[in-house]
Amino acid sequence: MRSVFALAGIIALLVVFGPVFAPYEPTMIDIRNRLSPPSMEFLLGTDALGRDILSRLLHGARWSLGLAFLISVIGLCVGTAIGLAAALGGKLADWAVMRTTDTFLAFPDLVAAVVIAGLMGAGTWSLIFALSATGWMRYARVARGVGLSLKTRGYVIQAKLAGVPPWAIARWHYLPSLLPSLTVVWTGMFARAILGISALGFLGFGVQPPMPEWGTMLLDARIHMRSTPLQMIWPGLAVVTSVLAINLAGDALRDALTEKDAEQ
Questions:
Q1: Distance CA 196, CA 206 (A)
Q2: Which among 14, 27, 74, 143 is placed 20 to 30 Å from 91, CA to CA?
């Protein structure tokens, strides 16, 4: 488990310090060295415009992983608030929130995100909004389920009778119980956000050139896929490795929390 968390930590360091280790500017064009194979000068080769692929991957980590982190946190906050509102509200509020959640869940996340991004236009902000708007439902269902189970607990009933405001009850009684479950859900949604950003970037709806985002790099490299396949392999490998590491970290965290609950 430690090795998995270490790998996840390396990914986090890449987001913060990756550009520091980039040997070249990610947008620097050098036509003389276009489509160069890996060498001592360009460790991973260059793309069709002569830009260093390693530098673009390191800078792209900030876009792909950083935006995924932001999107997953937005989904966590929005979904938790909606789920707690359903749990703490009356039957009508619970019914309305859950039917809305079920409606959103009826559509595949990526398809809905593509539709929203297409209506808003390509760009970073539309990417963030599209993936955030399609990523809060699972948090809401978890928050509602845990909230309903806590609603009949004695200490919650006593707090209500004592006149404690609902927001204070949610802060001190609901959120601590929600944290373990939401953390596990968040790791999975973080990985899904990386895939969503890369997919929208590959479709042309994400971060726009010349910014180096992994999905955009895949889009730029597809024309030369047969002649220089390494152009697509490197960003694809970055996406797969990141998603796999985060999913494994989430599984390890879930197992650790399950063992802790069993011991208690």
A1: 9
A2: 74
Which residue ranges form the domains of the chain, and what is each CATH number? 50-263 (1.10.3720.10)
Cβ atoms within 10 Å, residue 3: 10
> Is the CB of residue 215 less than 8 Å from the CB of residue 200?
yes
Flag whether pLDDT at 3 surpasses 60.
Answer: no
| pLDDT band at 173; cut points 50, 70, 90 | confident
Q: Quick one: which of 154, 136, 128 has its CA closest to 84?
A: 136
| Burial (CB count within 10 angstroms: exposed 0-12, middle 13-18, buried 19+), residue 49 | middle
256 contacts 64 by C-beta, under 8 angstroms = no
Over residues 147-163, the pLDDT tens digits come to 888 777 777 777 777 77
Distances (CA, A) of 2 to 182, 245, 252: 21, 12, 9
